[in-house]
Design a protein that fits this description.
single chain, 556 residues, mainly beta, Beta-galactosidase, Chain A, domain 5, 2 domains, 14-stranded mixed β-sheet, 35 strands
Length: 556
Amino acid sequence: MPCRAGTGEERALRRESAGPAKPRERSSLGRLLPTLLLVVSAFTSAASVSGPPLAKRPLVSAGPPVGEASAASPSSPHFDATTVVEMARALAQKPFAPPGTSLPEELRKLTYDQYRDIRFRPSATLWAQPSRKFRLQLFPLGYLFTTPVEISIVRNGRAEHLPYRPDLFTVGPLVPKPLPQQDIGFSGFRLLYPLNLHDRWDEVAVFQGASYFRSLGRDQQYGLSARGLALKTGDPTGEEFPIFRAFWIDEPEPEASMLVLHALLDSPSVTGAYRFEIWPGRDTVMFVDAVLFPRVELNEVGLAPETSMFMFDANGRIGVDDFRPEVHDSDGLIVLNGRGEHLWRPLANPARLQISAFQDQHPRGFGFLQRDRLLADYQDFEAHFERRPSLFVEPRGDWGKGAVILTEIPSDSEIHDNMVAFWRPEKPIPAKSEFRLSYRLLWGLEPAEVLDRLRVVKTAMGRADVKAPTPVRRFVVDYGPDPHPCRGPCAPPHAEVTTTSGRVAEIAVGDNPLTHGYRVSFTLDPQNSDLCELRLDLKFDDTRSAEVWLYRWTKP
């Protein structure tokens, strides 16, 4: 089975909040793996499944709309903070059994447009009372989403199954047959919250498809996604996609600004119990606590994974046939390492699959950022890439030794999620062990931790000779304003640029009147190299500091 970075049309459905969207597809890595390029930076020290169900779903007769569901009955199962952990522990002792489904064939064969013609009925929205800030809506099964997900509501320490009923949805003329009557389950859900206006409930989070979920901050539109776990990304045998097979959502108190939900993760290699604490706001914050129970040794595991899309910007327009200057959900990877450095790696849409490892110990954070926030730089009045959220992962506790792994997948269309980043521990996670992990996800603008020094705001590259074509490249790296400006005249910085191969020359540093920071330019002669790893350090004689710029040049 080929590796995939993110769903295509599935990705579109995860991303959109209203109105039509272009189909998005997961990129296929299988055909690219023979050209796998794996370089550890020299500058830094489940598949679609079917089968028997997890547990017999309690059949609840059709009753009141979901939005009017009654409190859990005394016979409802007891639920507390350890419930899902114990379920995951017990499940790991048994062979993997994919969740079963009796999904009718007509739902499996739905097209993208037909699936979108099935919509959750607004009047059935859960918690749709004036005193409630959070509201819950459900997604139907069908099309790419054929794996049923168990969803329960937790009230007063009791969990009650949320049953599917066809009258929870409206069906448009594109859907060929009526929806089934039996309780077939759901494919996921979305949370609504008055994120932008106090009297308008906007979509603030979606959990749907494998272990994918997404969120955003105020005045933003969906872009990149996160996952519960990544396994075997880039492996020639194919990537393994764990699934969230069940959710327990705590009913929020009136006026509550935070929601807690739990999820049970499962795959052939591992089970896991996840707890999400969601705080919507200008930047939506998620606190994630996970306990993993590997069935087998996890050699190629990705913790806190995220996926995004990068097609091109001013730095990579070779062969681009598009009126828009830039097309991307994220333009760079930030890594705050344990040595106090801020590493900025501009993303690239490479000719060959590339995997980079940024070795670290005691990491302080990483994530895909969307720094360019100017509509004029994209010229796309529909996609609004300038409104896409950044996603920063902040470890809670000591993650020890390991590496931030960046996978860049060649793509010829913006419908592909072709960027993947995650943390990989130095040592494999043993089989039959218990592995705990905690971290914070920040969806929105750049975190405060990133803003304490000069940041790279633009990278551009082109031929070094204006008179004739040449293999020598000229790089231009622009820095934004200093967050700690000098009280008097500032001593100009100097730049140190190094490369693993080839030759760097003509290094120059000057003021940038557009960014109110600095511009560094230099040339790179690759000579006979197919790959050059570049590092730029902007040095100051005073207390000021700047991000470290990293770049991988590869021969076209």
